[in-house]
Design brief:
heterodimer, A: 296 residues, MetI-like fold, 12 helices, B: 312 residues, two-stranded antiparallel sheet
C-alpha cells in the first residue's frame, strides 16, 4: 500500500498544472492573515473615528475627572507612563543585557544552575502579568514597604519585561558569528574585552530593537498596576519616584468602566494617544532592524 | 623595525604571564548576579503567594474551595467555591484557542512557505504591531464594538452586555501573533533539503507544507500553542472589561462571567480590604493561576526537549 500510494499521488500532482485545491489552500492561508490584520485595521479605524472629536490639546493638558468628561484629559496618565518607562528602561535594560551576556558568553550549559536559569526565564515569560501584580503588591509594596509609588510600579514592570529583554538580547548576541570572537581572542584580547569591544557593538542594533519592543509591552500593560493602587483617580503628576501615580492604560480602563457615553469617546481619544506612542516605538524598532541589521 | 617589534614582544609577554585577571572574574560575577535576578523573581512570586495562601487555607478548607460551585468572596456571607471562575477561565481560553490556532497557523504557513521575501517584510512588522496592541484596547473594542455587532447579527444568542464570547474572541485575536510568529520561526528553521526532497517526489506545495514542513516543525508549533494558552488563561484586562465580574456557575458563553485573573483584578483594585479573608483569596487564586501556567510551560519544555527535530 505504502509503495503504491506514493506513485499515485505523484502522478496526480505532477499532472496538469496546479489543481484547484492548491489554489484554494493558498487563498485560505492568505485570507487568514488578512482577517487577522484586517481586524487590526478595523480596530484602528474605530477608535480614531470615535475619539476624533476629543483629540485636542485639552486631552493632554487637563487632568482626569470622572464627573466632567467634556473637559477631562489624561495628563497625569501620560506623565505617569513616561516616568514608569524611564525607570523601567534604567532598571530592566542593563540587567537584561548583562544576564543575556552571561547566558550566551559565559554560562556552561551543562551545569545544573545554568539549566535552572534558562528554564526559569522561559517560565517567567509565560507568567500572567496579573501575577506580577501580586508580586509587586506582596513583596515590593508591602514587604519592602515601598507603598503604591512610581518606584513600586517601575520595579514590578521591570521584572515583567526582564525575560523579554533577556530573550531578545540573547538572540542578538547569538547572531554574532563565532569567528569574530575567535579573531579577537587570537589577537590577545581577554574574554570581557572581546565581548565589550567586538560582540556588543555588533549586537547593539538587535538588542535595541528587542528592548524597544519590550518597553512598548510595558507601556501597554495595565493589569499589574490595578494591583498597585494606580486605579484610583490621580489628578496630579508624580513629583518623584516616591509619589503616587497613574498610567495611561489605567486611565483608559477607568474611563471605560464609566457608563456615560462621553467617557467612551474620551477613552477612544486616550487610546489613540496610547496607540500613537506605541506605533512610533514600533516603527523606530523596525527601522533600526532594517537599517543596521548585518548579514554575516 | 625595532620599535615595531617591541609592543608585540611586550604583548606576548603580558599574555603569557600567569597572574590571574581579577577584573575578568569580577565581570563574570556581576553578569551572573544579573542572570540570577530572574531566579529571584520566581522566588519572589512564590514568596508573595505562599504565606497568604497558607493563611487562606487555614480559614477556608480545601473541600470548601474545590468542592463547591458558588463563588463570591466579596459577598456577605462570602462563598469560596472556586469552580465558576475556573470554568470561565477554561471556556474563554478555549474560545480564544479556537480562534487563534487556525488563523495563526495558517498565517504562519503562508508567511513561511508562500510569501515572497518582500511580502514577508511587510506582513511581519504588521503582525508585531498587532502583538503590541495593549489589552485594554482589545477589551474596549470587545465591549463597545464586537458585542453590539454580535447582538445585532445573532439576536438568538441573547448575549449580555458583558459576555464570555466577545471576550474570548478578542483574547483569541490577541494571541494570534504569538501562535503565528513562533510557528513561523520553527517552520523557517526546517531545512530546505526536506522541501526539495518532497518536491522531487512530486509533491505539490500544499502537500509539502502540510505533510513535511508542519510535521517537521511540530514541536515548535506545539510550544507556540501552549505559550498562547497560558497567555489566554492569564489575560486580565480583556476579560475584566468585556467579560465582566459576575460569577454564577454557568457554561453559557453568552453570559457575563468572571475569570480567575478578572477576579484578582477586581479584588486587588480595592474591593477587598487588606488582611481580610477576601484579600487572601486573591493570593489563593493567584497561586492556582501561577501553578497552572507553570505546569503548562514545564510540560511544553519537556515536549520540545523530547520531540525536537535537530537538523544540520
Amino acid at each position: 500500500m505504502a509503495v503504491l500510494s506514493t506513485p499515485r499521488s505523484a502522478v496526480q500532482l505532477a499532472g496538469k498544472g496546479r489543481p484547484l485545491r492548491e489554489h484554494l489552500f493558498r487563498i485560505a492561508l492568505l485570507s487568514s492573515l488578512v482577517i487577522a490584520l484586517g481586524f487590526l485595521a478595523l480596530l484602528l479605524i474605530y477608535v480614531v473615528q470615535e475619539g476624533w472629536p476629543r483629540i485636542s490639546p485639552t486631552l493632554w493638558e487637563a487632568m482626569p475627572s470622572i464627573r466632567r468628561p467634556e473637559t477631562a484629559g489624561v495628563q497625569s496618565g501620560i506623565v505617569g507612563t513616561l516616568w514608569i518607562i524611564g525607570l523601567t528602561a534604567l532598571m530592566a535594560l542593563p540587567t537584561g543585557v548583562l544576564a543575556a551576556i552571561y547566558l550566551e558568553e559565559y554560562a556552561d550549559r551543562t551545569k545544573w544552575y545554568n539549566k535552572i536559569i534558562e528554564l526559569n526565564i522561559s517560565n517567567l515569560a509565560a507568567v500572567p502579568s496579573i501575577v506580577y501584580g501580586i508580586l509587586g503588591l506582596g513583596i515590593i509594596a508591602r514587604w519592602l514597604e515601598f507603598g503604591f509609588t512610581v518606584m513600586t510600579g517601575a520595579m514590578t514592570v521591570s521584572l515583567l519585561v526582564l525575560p523579554i529583554v533577556i530573550i531578545s538580547a540573547r538572540e542578538a548576541i547569538r547572531a554574532v558569528p563565532p569567528s569574530i570572537r575567535e579573531g579577537s581572542l587570537a589577537l590577545g584580547a581577554t574574554q570581557w574585552q572581546t565581548i565589550y569591544r567586538q560582540v556588543l557593538p555588533s549586537a547593539i542594533p538587535g538588542i535595541a530593537t528587542g528592548s524597544i519592543l519590550a518597553l512598548s509591552r510595558a507601556i501597554g500593560e495595565a493589569a499589574p498596576f490595578l494591583m498597585l493602587g494606580a486605579a484610583t483617580l490621580v489628578r496630579f503628576n508624580p513629583e518623584g519616584v516616591w509619589s503616587s501615580f497613574t498610567v495611561l492604560p489605567i486611565q483608559i480602563y477607568s474611563f471605560i468602566t464609566q457608563s456615560r457615553e462621553e467617557f467612551h469617546v474620551l477613552a477612544s481619544a486616550a487610546i489613540v494617544i496610547l496607540l500613537a506612542i506605541l506605533l512610533l516605538m514600533n516603527s523606530i524598532a523596525i527601522w533600526l532592524r532594517n537599517r543596521y541589521q548585518k548579514r554575516w | 623595525m625595532a620599535t615595531q617589534q617591541q609592543p608585540t614582544a611586550r604583548g606576548a609577554k603580558s599574555l603569557a604571564r600567569s597572574r590571574p585577571r581579577y577584573g575578568e572574574h569580577i565581570v563574570k560575577a556581576i553578569l551572573l548576579v544579573a542572570a540570577l535576578i530572574s531566579v529571584a523573581t520566581t522566588l519572589g512570586i512564590v514568596a508573595a503567594l505562599v504565606e497568604p495562601t497558607i493563611e487562606f487555607f487555614s480559614e477556608i478548607s480545601f473541600a470548601d474551595f474545590f468542592g463547591s460551585t458558588t463563588w463570591g468572596p466579596l459577598f456577605s456571607p462570602p462563598y469560596f467555591g472556586v469552580w465558576p471562575i475556573i470554568v470561565a477561565t477554561l471556556e474563554i481560553t478555549l474560545i480564544a484557542i479556537v480562534v487563534a490556532v487556525p488563523l495563526g497557523l495558517a498565517a504562519a504557513i503562508y508567511l513561511s512557505e508562500y510569501a515572497s521575501p518582500r511580502v514577508r517584510k511587510i506582513f511581519k512588522p504588521v503582525l508585531e504591531v498587532l502583538a503590541g496592541v495593549p489589552t485594554v484596547v482589545f477589551g474596549f473594542f470587545a465591549l463597545v464594538f464586537v458585542t453590539p455587532l454580535l447582538q445585532s447579527w445573532f439576536p438568538f444568542l441573547n448575549l449580555e452586555a458583558k459576555n464570555a464570547l466577545a471576550a474570548g474572541l478578542l483574547v483569541g485575536v490577541m494571541i494570534i501573533p504569538i501562535v503565528a510568529s513562533l510557528s513561523e520561526d520553527s517552520m523557517a528553521a526546517v531545512p530546505n533539503g526536506l522541501r526539495e526532497g518532497s518536491y522531487a517526489l512530486g509533491a505539490s506545495k500544499m502537500l509539502t507544507s502540510v505533510r513535511v514542513v508542519v510535521p517537521a516543525a511540530f514541536s515548535g508549533i506545539v510550544a507556540a500553542i501552549i505559550l498562547a494558552i497560558s497567555r489566554a488563561a492569564g489575560e486580565t484586562m480583556i476579560v475584566a472589561i468585556a467579560g465582566g465580574f459576575r460569577s454564577e456557575f454557568t457554561f453559557n458563553p453568552a453570559n457575563e462571567m468572571s475569570t480567575m485573573a478578572a477576579f484578582i483584578a477586581q479584588a486587588g483594585s480595592g474591593d477587598a480590604s487588606a488582611g481580610s479573608t477576601a484579600y487572601k483569596t486573591i493570593f489563593a487564586v493567584g497561586s492556582l493561576l501561577f501553578i497552572m501556567t507553570f505546569a503548562m510551560n514545564w510540560f511544553s519544555a519537556r515536549l520540545v526537549q523530547k520531540y525536537r527535530e535537530v537538523y544540520e
